[in-house]
Amino acid sequence: MAVSLCAMDHAYIDANSIAERYLDHGLSSVELREFEEHIVDCQECADRLLLAEMFHARNGHKTKPDEKMVARVVLYKPKRVMLMLIAAAVAVPVAYLLWWLIWRG
């Protein structure tokens, strides 16, 4: 297991403006990797990053069309995808059962 060169916790993220620097492409490769690993499991930081992105957009910060960093890192979390798949797997049979009960009787 690789040893972390920076302690990517909330105190470090706040003290070093990591979310803002992430959006400005100002992180070192180590900080970038560790921040992306951190926000995958931290909803608080994912929300902070989305807010920082909205603040940048509102204040005229232009992003290139290929810059979908937040969507790439935040919106496609493995846990979130699994929960959506489980919800769909439960919802479809329940909807069919309700339809069958309503139209049968």
Q: How does this model look, in words?
A:
It is a single chain. The chain is mostly helical and 105 residues long. 71% of the residues lie in helices and 0% in strands. It is built from 6 helices and no strands. Helix 3 (29-41) crosses helix 4 (43-58). The longest helix is centred in the last third of the chain and has 27 residues, at 78-104. It is elongated. The mean pLDDT is 75.
Main attributes of the structure:
105 residues; 6 helices; elongated
Break the fold down into its secondary structure elements and pairings.
Layout: H1 10-15, H2 18-23, H3 29-41, H4 43-58, H5 69-75, H6 78-104
Beginning-to-end CA distance, first to last residue? 61 Å
Q: Tell me the total number of β-strands.
A: 0
The arrangement of helices and strands along the chain is HHHHHH
Q: State which percent range the strand residues make up.
A: under 5%
Major sheet attributes: none
Summarize the structure.
The chain is mainly α and 105 residues long.
